[in-house]
Amino acid sequence: MFQTAISLLDRQPKEIAGSNIVLPTGSGLSAQWKTQQEGSISRYESESYEADRTISMLFGGFIATTLDKQYPVLDVGCGLFRELPSYVSDMGLRSYIGMEPLEVIVERDYPCLVGSVAEDIPLKDGSIGAAIFATSLDHIEKPEVAINEVLRVLRPGGSLYFWNGLYDPHILAEQKTFGNILNHSRGLKRALRVLVPQIEYAVLLRRMWNRKRDLAAGRPLDHAHYRYFTQAKIQADMESYGLRIVRQVLVPGSNSHFSECKPIKRVASR
Q: What GO molecular functions are on record for this protein (predicted)?
C-alpha cells in the first residue's frame, strides 16, 4: 500500500516518517481553521472516542456493497489512529490511503498523507477509485473546493461515500428509545433515564427548541465543526457540489446518515 501511495503523489513530500507521508498543509485556508482543528486533537486521545464501533462497522458494510476494491481508496480525514478504521479494516482492500490534515505523527499500519487538506489533494488526476468521508465533511472549511478536488482525482465511475450526522430535531428526538437506554447507557445515566423520564424529556424539548433555532441561524455544532446537516440540507448540498445521491440510509436509533454519491459531470484536470 505504501509504494502505491507514493506512486500516486503529484508533489514531493516534506518527509516520510514510517507510514506517514508528510506534506505541506494546503494553501488558501484560514488560520482560524487550523486553530480550530488542532483544538480537536484531544478528542482522538480520549479512550471513549469511538469506543463503540457498531455504526462505524455498519458504514463499512454500506461501502462494501458497491465498492470496486481493485482501485485505491482515499479516506478524507482518517484520524489519528494506528489501526485501519473499523469501516474498512475487514474489506481486504488492495490499496487504502488515509489523508489527515492535522500535522501529527503517529504510528500507523497504513499510508497516510499527513498535513494534506481536502481542498488541495496531493494526488494525480484520476488516481483513486473511491473517496470516503467518515464524519469529516462538516470539518472542511471549503466543501465546494474539496469535492471538486476529489472529483479531479477520482477515476471515471468512482463513488464518494459519506457518513454524516443529521441534526433534524425530530431525528434526535426519535433516538430516545428503550434500545438506547439498554444498549448505550450505564450506571447512574441508565437509572436516570428510567426513573426520571419526565425531567429528561423536558430537557429534550428545550434542546429541540434550541436546535431548531440554531439550524435556522446556521450556527455550527461547536468550534471544530463548520456546518449542520439535516435531511433536506444533505440533498441540497450534494446537488450544489455536483453530486447525485444513488444510495442512502439513516441508521435506525441514531442520527447517522450514509450516502453513496456519483458525480453529475467530470471535473477538468489541473
A: S-adenosylmethionine-dependent methyltransferase activity
